[in-house]
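Budget justification note: compute hours in this period were largely spent on complex prediction jobs such as the one shown. Inputs:
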Amino acid sequence: MDTNALLIGLAGVLATAAPVLFAVIGETITERAGIINLSLNGTILLSAMGGFTAAYKTGNIFLGFLTGMLIGALVALVIAFSSITLKQSQVAVGFVLALACRDLAYFLGVPVMNQSGPRLTIWSIPGLKDIPIAGTLFFKQDLITYLSFLVILLAWLWIFHTRPGLMLRGIGERPAAAFVRGANVKRLRYLYTILGGAIVGLAGPAYSLSVKAGWMGTMSGIDGIGWIALSITIFGGWNPLRAAFGAYLFAFLQWLGLVLQSKIPDVPTQVLQVAPFPLMILTLLLVNISDAEWVERILAAMPEKARRWTMKLLRALRASPPVSLGVPFESE
Amino acid sequence: MNVELREIYKSFGPVHANNGINLKIQAGTIQGILGENGAGKSTLMKILSGFFRADQGEILLDDRLVSIHSPSDAIHHGVGMLHQDPLDFPPMRVIDNFILGHKGGLSTGQAEANRDFKKLSEQFSFFIDPDAYIDSLTVGERQQLEILRLIWLGARVLIFDEPTTGISAAQKVKLFEALRLLAQQGKTVLFVSHKLEDVEGLCTGVAVLRQGNLVGEVKQPYSTKKLVEMMFGKDIAVGERNPCSADDITVSLSKLSIEDYRLKVREVNLDLHCGEVIGMAGMEGSGQGLFLRAVGGMAHTVGGKILIGGRDLTGRSYQAFKKYGVAFLPAARLEEGLVPGLNLTEHFILAEKATGFFINWEKGHLLAEKRIKEFDVRGTPENTVESLSGGNQQRALLALLREPLNLLLLEHPTRGLDIESTIYIWNKLKERCKSGTSILFISSDLEEILQYSDRVLVFFSGKVTPALDSTTLTTEKLGELIGGKGWTESSSGGGE
Amino acid sequence: MRKNTWINLGFQVGALLLALLITTLILVAVGAPPIKSYLSIVKGAFGSTRNVVAVLITWSPLLLTTAGVLVTFSAGLWNIGMEGQMTMGAIFATGALRLFQNTSIPPAMIIALGILAGILGGALWAALAGALKTFGGVNEIFGGLGLNFVATALTIYLVFGPWKRPGVGSMSGTQPFNKILWLPTLPGTELSLWSLGISILVIGLVYLLLRGTHFGLRLKAVGKNSRAAFLMGVPTWQYSIFAFLLCGAFAGLAGGIQVTGIYHRLLPNISNGYGFLGLLVAMLVNYQAIWAIPIAFFFAALNFGSVQLQIQYKLDSSFAGVLQDLLVLLVLLGEGARQKLMKRR
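Corresponding output:
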């Protein structure tokens, strides 16, 4: 493959990663506040369908994206209400919502199935697009991909370089300490859950109005992405940059799979289609493995040098969640 | 800033934590708040700092009525509290912890914060690296950070809750210097503690709380005897004990050392005789909890041996300890000892050795009824455990124990219980002693310790006294030991 | 009945009514006549003997998966991997049938072997998820989900690859087995009394297990307070793994029955969402096994009846899913509301 085709392929990877990025960054923000939004798979499908429908009916793409955000925010509101105010299991409610939104998406989406609707076009940034290599990679994308770059940056800046972001981290790590420092923990959790959900809501339209334009019901090929996004969030260690790395890695591997498939026709397609999932399990394993007791025992038995090297590796992979993730907060 | 607390009442369900407390504190002084566990000191301070809301009562600052209904109100009025376990954020850096909670704009303002941090650090001679992570700091350093933070936020009233637990002697000296400096600067310092020596050495005045009431206020110079008397109440007639004449040693601990991230308990030697009761006294966090769990096989030991009934069980799992006749009754009855959602019959069936695959509900029901009667549990076999009162939950826990037992470990067996339940439970426990079970129990009630123990161990910051004969102990002496005074060289080592 | 029971019932009926209200609104939104749609579902489920039989056929695998979920829920585990466990059961069953079909073993024996193989396959797949959780710290939700997708992929690979029909592989599955290898059914129908019988037996077994055995009681203790259970001497992680095995066995059994009793071959998506549906049923009956029987029937009727909806009004059959999901969601929210209101008193 010549360089230009390679670059175009990689640019495509950046574009296909955009929806996953929105989901992962949105969920990272929500989980930083201590709430798990397990409904991602359903939210993405519903916002994809909803966004497409809105854009299709009105001809306005931006309205489509806005609708997606609204749907994401509404679903997140239900999660927030049931977790924060009603103190019900976040896992249970999130899971049921994942199913419900999915079924709703399929049911309500029938009228717009297989229709061709508006689609985002590439908008190359004048001037920047002519830079060798970087130009093709980064500056010949569509608007939503540019937005995905921005979202990573903004999320990272917010969480790690602003004062309110500091408070966000505090709420997730130790809500009692944040409370004692004057934070209204419940209200902030509501806000961040809804914000995170709105960002996730961009992922669906990013598919149906850009990457995989249109709504094709069960053949849309995006069922399952939400679960992958959740595991990339964990892999990302609740850090937007590391999470972005995970998302790009995932998109890259998918692209690689397609490329290799054409070169090695004997490998059944399913292997490549399903490869993300065992990979997801593997990453989750690696991320938690340093805690396991039997691992500690093995480490103790290793020779000094090997042990130090292994521990360094394990520590780099380690991802510790915000301590209060999933736990309701009581102030009295 | 002068602080006045008027007629403060606060209850948690049936427990009256604060019963009409009136207290005035002058600016520029260090006021000691003294009392045993459960006396109400922490609750009172948490009300002043906005963590709790009082049921009744008023708070006045500089003779002006203020409403403090949340921590942010308190901060706004200049009241800050340093909790016993510093409420900070371990995975973050010092400078992050310093900034977090300070009202500011969008930018972190780190540069300015760094400068202020440096200035304040110099003022108090605290040397902390702003870029270090909290979980690499000692407790003493975390406290210092909190002090700097509260000053930076403009606190004029600073509350310190048991600040000398878990810090080194050198850090204590530094802390006291800082406190005196704060008082000199005109701030109001409240020093909550149980450590008599610290309070006597530092405070201009001491208020003593007991069981939710303000017992009295004294000024320097202090008489330790009077303070102890106020804290614990008068001596009571020591009740009947049940000496076991058996010479069998059921439990033998030699040079037992236990560690956790805060405490080290070093080289305890103890032989328990058949049917003997040993009480463990000391303020929370002095090491007795850790010790008790280690003897039950639930905490790692770093040295020494545990022999139960002649068998070496050092390093074995909890299941092994259970098999050889050791039982543990946790203080957190619902969180650790009982299963909320299951009823009494189900608990009794669980505790028994299973015979056969199917549950014989009839038999189980009869067993439950029998045990309920035996232990006078106010409840029916169908009652779920969370619907029982504390006293009945404790009776149920006792009733769940199987026989025979070599060693029974009790964590605060009568905490929060009424007199009747307490007496009843101890009668049942003494019955066990007669049949040969040894008992190790933790209690913060000195009368209970003296009345029921054959010998007593006192814990203080990880140090343990040798087993003292309870007939020669008085509540006054016991109180002193708990407060860290009157220890001799023969006690085992401890420290942080 | 005491006052509390009435209040509980009230909340649950309220949830049902609210769910119906919302779905009615949805129907109106897509332009379908609500009352007629509901009637159409009822007709689709009960309108003729054939339809009722079809509902019964749908009912039995659902009972099995619900039974399995109840076991793992008691242990405090979220076994989302049931879909994959059922699929694995189907794969193992198909494999066994293929292995033995041309031997001299009597057909009834082969069918039995197939079903046993299914149980084995499901249990193994569940053990994998359980091991990932217990020894690898991988949350069983993700472990289960990942393994679900792997099982599906494996199915597609087999159907289009080594096990494909002579000629070209197709989505309709592998070569159907010879009739002698079919589970005996009621004449003229596809309903196998064997499968129905086994399913009801299993759910009854689970009910007994959870209510009347030491194992069940200990399992519940582990689920409600594993710390206290540990202190009382229950080997907690072994019980967890066993719960996974049992649940996987039931799912695998369902998969085996799908192969031997209904489809007589392996096809993609043979688990058909029964795993997730079982979870929903279990959540709805608040983990009380005895109510699972009628609720599972209700859900099965909804599922099959909504196919009629598709035929008559061109609405997607996922409508049944919408109603089911909303019902569970509202029951969960209602439970939270009830707890909050009760606290106020």
